[in-house]
Specification:
Blueprint: H1 5-17, E1 22-25, H2 29-35, E2 47-51, E3 57-61, H3 65-69, E4 76-80, H4 87-96, E5 103-106, H5 113-122, E6 127-130, H6 132-136, H7 144-167, H8 174-187, E7 192-193, E8 198-201, E9 223-228, E10 230-232, E11 235-236, E12 239-245, H9 250-269, H10 276-288, E13 301-303, E14 310-314, E15 327-330, E16 333-336, E17 340-343, E18 346-350, E19 355-357, E20 367-368
Parallel strand pairs: 1-5, 3-4, 5-6, 12-20
Antiparallel strand pairs: 1-2, 2-3, 7-10, 8-9, 9-12, 10-11, 13-14, 15-18, 16-17, 18-19
Length: 369
């Protein structure tokens, strides 16, 4: 993957809107989006300086330089070695770009304390502000290439889930099922996992972020909840499906039907021009109308892309207007503590005409095992 100058232009437009003379980006999703280069956060700081005009500069450990350069992002590289330390390189970047006394935006949710202190030390007259939302906004609208990567990640995930459900037998543990699911995603071409998959059975399914157990063996009548996703070219699937082992009680069926209705309502509500919060309001109301309001524990969804959780957030009160290219989850859930939990999560994209579900796996009630 090569860097796209178009993405740098998007950042500079965002900087102009927020009165920033420069932005500093460190390894993470925004860095990957701009440079196409993957680097981990470590004790060696790597900082990309983007001025409002002119050539960017990157302060980079020498051992990372070749990898960075191979992706074609045009920046003045100011490399430093372990023996030299990073302070001279950082001072050079500030001086070269004339940043002292300027207004500099940083990723406030990502930049570490020591990096912020070092930046302020070398640009003591600069105003350093949290511009995380402004910088991240460049990833809000996905292009065709990004949507294609998401489709691939989702296709891998859905095929792996189908194969896993066929393999389930009463007596398997949550860990065994999760391990099978991961193996199938890897075999089908996943380049990584969006997060450690969640496979929750019985009363454990009523914990929205429950932990996979090693010892519990699934039995007839259990609810079985999957929340998982493969990643492909850095883009993440995030899918939840809930099934039942052997049989489903009348209560389980009623809860499932309520969540399915809420999922349908959320997808029908989502369209260009609608506030993100409205989707949550409508989906939650659909569940309240069924009499299960006390089982609602979380919002309806979140944005999805290079991060598993990013804007737009599908939560009541969020007035952000949905626009074509925005990708997010619709994942209503109901959780009866000590008994059963049901969540149905789809990944959708706003189109000019409305809302397309990128996920296609059946939402009908399923009995497995």
């Amino acid at each position: 993957m090569k860097a796209s100058p178009h993405r740098l232009d998007k950042l500079r437009r965002a900087m102009q809107q927020h009165d920033l003379d420069a932005a500093v980006v460190i390894p993470g999703s925004n860095f990957l989006y701009l440079t196409a280069s993957v680097h981990g956060l470590m004790e060696r700081p790597l900082m990309l300086f983007v001025p409002s005009s002119g050539r960017p500069a990157v302060v980079i450990p020498a051992l990372e330089l070749e990898h960075f350069a191979s992706h074609g992002f045009d920046a003045q590289a100011i490399a430093w070695t372990d023996s030299e330390g990073y302070n001279t390189a950082l001072a050079t970047a500030v001086r070269t770009l004339a940043l002292d006394g300027k207004r500099i935006g940083v990723e406030g949710q990502l930049m570490r304390f020591f990096e912020g202190v070092a930046l302020q030390r070398h640009a003591p007259q600069a105003t350093v502000v949290d511009a995380h939302q402004a910088i991240s906004s460049i990833r809000l609208h996905k292009d065709a290439e990004e949507i294609a990567a998401l489709r691939k990640a989702i296709a891998i995930s859905e095929q792996a889930l189908g194969e896993t459900l066929e393999a389930i037998k009463i007596g398997m543990t949550e860990r065994e099922i999760m391990t099978f699911l991961v193996a199938r995603m890897n075999a089908l071409g996943a380049e990584g996992l969006s997060f450690e998959p969640i496979v929750l059975a019985g009363e454990n399914s009523a914990r929205p972020h429950g932990k996979v157990r090693d010892q519990y063996r699934i039995q007839r009548g259990d609810t079985l909840l999957f929340d998982f996703g493969a990643s492909y070219q850095g883009y993440h699937a995030d899918i939840t499906r809930t099934v039942f082992v052997g049989a489903a009680s009348a209560t389980q069926r009623a809860i499932y039907a309520a969540v399915k209705r809420a999922n349908e309502t959320g997808r029908a509500t989502a369209k260009p021009g609608i506030a993100a919060g409205k989707v949550d309001e409508q989906a939650a109301q659909a569940m309240r109308d069924t009499g299960f309001s006390e089982y609602i524990l979380h919002r309806t969804g979140h944005g999805l892309g290079l991060d598993v959780h990013e804007a737009p957030y599908i939560v009541q009160g969020n007035e952000q207007v949905l626009e074509p290219g925005m990708v997010f989850t619709i994942e209503p859930g109901l959780y009866a503590a000590g008994s059963t939990g049901v969540r149905i999560e789809d990944n959708v994209v706003i189109t000019e005409a409305g809302c397309e579900s990128l996920t296609t796996f059946s939402r009908d009630l399923m009995i497995v095992g």
